[in-house]
Specification:
single chain; D-Maltodextrin-Binding Protein, domain 2; 3 domains; nine-stranded mixed β-sheet; two-stranded antiparallel ribbon; rod-shaped
């Protein structure tokens, strides 16, 4: 081992702190007052430093405190060290602003959430040099993609929890049955989705969460299939054209309802169908700061800003994702399949679901 390395390993770095204080205070007594230590303790620390270096660092006599040539050299070096140390808090605080890399996100299609929008804005502000790579995929493939380390974070509802994955609740996405202006039921409400069982239905295929599948089968929706598409935008377009009724996320459809293009047939029913959406990460994946900071932003308590951009305002629909701990707690514990059903019915529905997949 080289002499310099051995010196660094053997040195008590607190001695440098004491020496720096002695020089700045221009004496042992003054330094003892600054450090809130006994004078004898400070003097002993100086002696230990001189012994480890094998050099006299200062003189104390009638002329007062004075550094030797070796002491002046050491003070210059120590001052540079302390200047570097003083920058550590600011450097750590600003580390995320200098962070570079790519965050790979995979999300369900047409996911509308002001909470998620705020998360993307706050993360981009905190890590401006990180590239966001966002892909859209069917919900049931996203957890597996995270499990295989194909993506850093998945945004999706879940059917089962993998022990290797971590799930952070994001929001509850409520779905309603909609029809277009040309549909004969436009402008009316139903007391139960059972009343819609004979209506042609637009299916969303692989992008339909399991809770919606159970809901459809429970109420007989889909006996007549008008169209099938895995794309929610296309499903919404077909509903607007009057091809059939369709289950759509309420936040996604709110603008079309306001414009009069869509009508929420089940908005007054007591039974609501929805799914909890999570941010999913792999606890066994190699640690990446870009991912850790994203999840930090997710769990951070947001600061309310009344002057925020109106584009980030949440649509006024039921069960929105405003930051309400009571709602989130209820959503985390709620069953995605709504009210309970007899075990025999549940087994029967499960068999039907598996056959339809």
């Amino acid at each position: 081992m080289r002499t310099g390395q051995k010196f660094c390993l053997d040195l008590d770095w607190n001695l440098l702190k004491v020496f720096h204080s002695i020089v700045e205070a221009k004496g042992v007594t003054s330094a003892a007052n600054v450090l809130w230590r006994k004078q004898s303790t400070v003097s002993l620390a100086l002696q230990r430093l001189e012994k480890s270096l094998g050099k006299k660092l200062c003189r104390r006599g009638p002329a007062g405190f004075e550094l030797t040539d070796e002491g002046r050299i050491l003070h210059e070096q120590v001052s540079e060290i302390f200047a570097k140390f003083s920058q550590i808090p600011e450097s750590i605080q600003n580390a995320s602003h200098e962070l570079r890399g790519r965050l790979r996100l995979r999300t369900i299609s047409n996911f509308v959430s002001a909470k998620f929008d705020r998360l993307l804005v706050s993360y981009s502000t905190r890590c401006p040099l990180v590239e966001l790579q966002i892909e859209v995929a069917p919900w049931e493939t996203i957890s597996l993609a995270v499990l295989r380390n194909e993506v850093d974070v998945g945004i999706a509802p879940i059917q089962m929890k993998y022990p290797e994955l971590q799930y952070e609740f994001l929001t509850r996405e409520v779905h309603l049955v909609y029809c277009g202006k040309r549909h004969p039921r436009f402008g009316t409400f139903v007391d139960s989705a059972d009343e819609l069982c004979e209506e042609p239905l637009i299916l969303t295929g692989a992008d339909e969460p399991e809770s919606l599948t159970y809901y459809r089968l429970r109420h007989g929706l889909g006996k007549r299939v008008a169209a099938t598409t895995p794309n929610l935008e296309e499903a919404k377009r077909l509903a607007i054209l009057g091809v059939g009724i369709c289950l759509l996320p309420a936040r996604m459809a709110v603008g079309d309802v306001k414009s009069g293009a869509l009508w929420p047939l089940t908005s007054k029913t007591r039974e609501r169908v929805g799914c909890d959406v999570y941010a999913i990460t792999n606890s066994h994946a190699p640690k990446r700061l870009v991912t850790d900071l994203f999840m930090e932003e997710l769990v951070r308590k947001p600061v309310r800003n009344r002057s925020a951009s109106p584009g980030l305002a949440e649509p006024a629909v039921a069960d929105d994702d405003r930051d309400c701990s009571a709602k989130e707690a209820a959503a985390k514990t709620a069953s995605p399949s709504l009210s309970p059903m007899p075990a025999s019915d549940e087994r029967h529905l499960h068999q039907i679901v598996q056959c339809n997949k």
